Amino acid sequence: MKDVDYFASDVHLAAENPRVSARFLGFLDEVRQEGGRLFLLGDIFDLWVGPKQTRLQYVVPILEKLREVTAASVKVHYIAGNRDFNFDARVNGGPPPRRLPEEMTVESQGRKLFLTHGDLLCTGDRGYRRVRSIGRSLPVRAAFSSMPLPLSTFLSRGFRRLSARVVARKPRQETAVDFSRVRSHLLAGHDAVVCGHVHRAARYRIALPGGRTGEFLTLGDWNREPVYLVGRGGELLLRKFR
Fold first, then answer.
1. Structure pTM?
2. What pLDDT digit, counting tens, does each position of 100-118 carry?
3. Which one of 128, 129, 218, 229 is separated from 175 by 20 to 30 angstroms, measured CA to CA?
4. Edge-first strand listing for the sheet containing 75-78
């Protein structure tokens, strides 16, 4: 297996945005040719309501391409986002996932990385955290999975529109990343924290005790800024897909 790792998040694939789907398919082709591992850090799909979604026209080529990637001996890891935490399609062989992980620790290029979607790093938004807990509860997940797809999609999109209006009225500091939480993961022995969610690619260096320096890397939103992270040749590099 090649010692090349790819990290991407917030692609927000949707039927109404074929341009982003085409861009992501091109990215997956690059991963298939070059990668050893692919880490998808959530919100790859703008919405995922259950297994019936695998039949949708815009979803089929994405899942087929992911299977091509895994057939090329690239290991795919999928972390839950706040929009696609119900993702349950088979992409890695074997049975589909019953529940996606929300965080992961991996070694890449000699560094210990803490991976997460990023919403759990925004600790100030208590209202969101309550809604998040309800939405991910087993009864709610089971209800959405059993509904007819048009109904579950309609309800989910309505909730997203309401959520967007609520978030727009919140103070910025309430929805921002809590850097003390990032720092706690670095103090726990990680060399870097990598996430999406904030829709802005950036790299921060954080001073730690003992003269150590940790890093916090955030990935881009593929609708505006398709920036991903690649680990290769002993380095972690933010790259924009073109």
1. 0.92
2. 889 999 999 999 999 999 9
3. 229
4. 75-78, 37-40, 5-8, 227-232, 235-240
